[in-house]
Specification:
This protein has a single domain, classed as Glucose Oxidase, domain 1 (3-Layer(bba) Sandwich). By secondary structure, the chain is an alpha/beta fold. It is built from four helices and eight strands. Strands 2-6-5-4-3-7-8 form a seven-stranded mixed β-barrel.
C-alpha cells in the first residue's frame, strides 16, 4: 500500500489535508484488458447461467448475497464461478448487450469464467494478493482500475481520506 499526502491551500484558519492510499492487488493475468469501475464484491460463487439475468445483468439467484445487484459495468470480485458451461455464453451475451462486468477478479478462475471472459472481451485475473474478499468492507463500491497484460494482473484501489487540521 502506498500513501501520498497532499496539502490543500489554506481555507480561512483551517488547512485541509488529503491522504491518498493506493491498495495494489497483484494476480495472475488470464484475459488481457483494462477497465475502471466500481467494485462489486461477493464472498459467494456466481453462476452466470441461471444466476445472472442475461438481459439486465442483475443477479437473480435467490439467497445470493448480491441478489438484485447489477454486474453491468462493475468490477466483479468473487471466489469462483459455478454451474453450467452455458455460463460462458451468458457472459458473451451480457457483453453483446452492454450488461457485462467491466472486469472480473476471482480467487481461482475455472474454464467457464475464463472462456466467457475471452469471448466477451472482459479483463480477468485470479490468485489475487492480498485477498480482496478479506478487504470487502473497505473496498465495496469504491472505484478501482484493473489492468491485465500477459500473465500479470493488477487491481488498484485508491482510498482518499480527507481531514481538517485539529480534527481528532
Amino acid at each position: 500500500m502506498q500513501t501520498n499526502i497532499k496539502e490543500a491551500p489554506l481555507l480561512g484558519q483551517l488547512r485541509r489535508v488529503q491522504v491518498e492510499q493506493l491498495i495494489k492487488v497483484h494476480g495472475r493475468g488470464l484475459v488481457e484488458g483494462k477497465a475502471i469501475a466500481s467494485l462489486l464484491i461477493s464472498e459467494e460463487p456466481i453462476s452466470f447461467y441461471g444466476g445472472v439475468d442475461p438481459d439486465s445483468g442483475k443477479i437473480v439467484e435467490r439467497g445470493h448475497e448480491l441478489h438484485g445487484e447489477s454486474v453491468a459495468g462493475r468490477l466483479l470480485v468473487f471466489p469462483y464461478g459455478k454451474g453450467s458451461t452455458v455460463g460462458s455464453y451468458t457472459l458473451l451475451r451480457l457483453a453483446k448487450r452492454g450488461k457485462a462486468p467491466a472486469g472480473i477478479v476471482n480467487l481461482q478462475s475455472e474454464p467457464i469464467i475464463i472462456i466467457g471472459c475471452m469471448l466477451g472481451g472482459i479483463p480477468l485475473m485470479d490468485r489475487p494478493s492480498p485477498n480482496p474478499l478479506k478487504l470487502k468492507k473497505l473496498l465495496q463500491g469504491r472505484t478501482a482500475k484493473i489492468t491485465v497484460k500477459g500473465k500479470e494482473g493488477l487491481l488498484e484501489v485508491s482510498l482518499d481520506v480527507r481531514s481538517k487540521e485539529g480534527d481528532s
